[in-house]
């Protein structure tokens, strides 16, 4: 398979590139002119730099590939969400339209479980009818709708992966990097007892799943949307796993479940973070497992490797 990865220098995108290479595929990694591609080049990946919003450049680089992977992302929970977000909406539309025009067989979109609302404490699968309440949730759904619409209209197979929140190496700004920072400062947040459950996944398994989706036989009538998780835990258990990896039991910052807006600000906590830490966020990924994909990494393996990587990079030049 000849694959091309957009967003290849990002946290998850870098793992998609790595796992495609390990699976023996021919990979082109696309990067902006300003991106640091040293790690990709050390891996022996063919790196192409371009102006991502230039239709001619995008068409030229996509031409001849079998599968396009879109791992680009820009919006964050703490940033203003624009309806026509340049990366999530405009770039995704350009990539999908161009891929279809170039005869690409599959377009695989890295999405997120952030699209799911907080109205259920029960395990959630692909059939769950989410009702977004935060702008970033609607943004994720709109991006998916763009990919599915273009695929349906052009006949290009469109596939969407919604992975659980990730833990892994080469992390800079994910939830785990933030939780690790609170752990280091003895301010690990525990809302009530920390018993709220959460599904997480090792970033290597996200990369493996994305590579697998490039060649699997999609069943007839399958909508091509897949949830992925690696393991279920709780916020308290995650703290214990970090304790074990670091070799230190960090102090906890105990937070009540019900907070006023003023209290949220005093804890430097967003409403989204409050909902995340107080609602069971368990995913049901039986669909992709029944088709033959299985994750490999445990909670402790993911945490141990991520912590080691974060600590090593604190003593060296940060990964870009």
TrEMBL record:
SUPFAM superfamilies hit by this protein: NAD(P)-binding Rossmann-fold domains
MF terms (GO), sorted A to Z: aldehyde dehydrogenase (NAD+) activity
Domain NAD-dependent epimerase/dehydratase: 4-226
InterPro entries per UniProt: Epimerase_deHydtase, NAD(P)-bd_dom_sf, NAD(P)-dependent_oxidoreduct
Record-level GO cellular component terms: cytoplasm
Signal peptide: none
Chain ranges passing through the membrane: none
Superkingdom of the source species: Bacteria
PANTHER family in UniProt: NAD(P)-BINDING DOMAIN-CONTAINING PROTEIN-RELATED, PROTEIN YEEZ
Name of the molecule in the record: NAD(P)-dependent oxidoreductase
Native source species: Paenibacillus alvei (Bacillus alvei)
């Amino acid at each position: 398979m000849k694959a091309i990865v957009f967003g290849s220098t990002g946290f998850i995108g870098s793992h998609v590139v790595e796992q495609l290479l390990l699976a023996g595929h021919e990979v082109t990694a696309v990067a902006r002119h300003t991106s640091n591609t040293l790690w990709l080049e050390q891996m022996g990946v063919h790196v192409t730099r371009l102006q991502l919003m230039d239709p001619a450049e995008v068409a030229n680089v996509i031409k001849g590939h079998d599968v396009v992977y879109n791992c680009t992302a820009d919006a964050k929970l703490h940033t203003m969400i624009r309806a026509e977000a340049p990366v999530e909406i405009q770039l995704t539309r350009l990539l999908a339209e161009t891929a279809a025009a170039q005869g690409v067989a599959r377009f695989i979109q890295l999405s997120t479980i952030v699209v799911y609302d907080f109205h259920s404490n029960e395990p959630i699968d692909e059939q769950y009818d989410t009702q977004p309440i935060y702008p970033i949730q609607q943004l994720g759904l709109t991006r998916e709708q763009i990919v599915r619409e273009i695929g349906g209209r052009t006949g290009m197979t469109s596939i969407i992966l919604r992975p659980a929140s990730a833990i892994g190496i080469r992390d800079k700004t994910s939830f785990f990097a933030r939780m690790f920072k609170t752990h280091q400062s003895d301010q690990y947040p525990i809302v009530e007892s920390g018993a709220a459950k959460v599904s997480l996944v090792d970033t290597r398994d996200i990369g493996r799943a994305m590579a697998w989706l490039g060649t699997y036989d999609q069943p007839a009538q399958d909508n091509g949307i897949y949830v992925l998780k690696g393991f279920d835990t709780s916020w308290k258990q995650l703290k214990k796993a970090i304790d074990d990896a670091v070799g230190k039991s960090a102090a906890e910052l105990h937070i009540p479940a019900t907070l006023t807006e003023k209290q949220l600000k005093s804890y430097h906590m967003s409403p989204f973070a409050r909902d995340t830490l107080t609602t069971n966020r368990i995913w049901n990924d039986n669909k992709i497992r029944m088709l033959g994909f299985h994750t490999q990494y445990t909670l402790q393996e993911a945490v141990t490797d991520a912590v080691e990587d974060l600590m090593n990079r604190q003593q060296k030049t940060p990964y870009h």
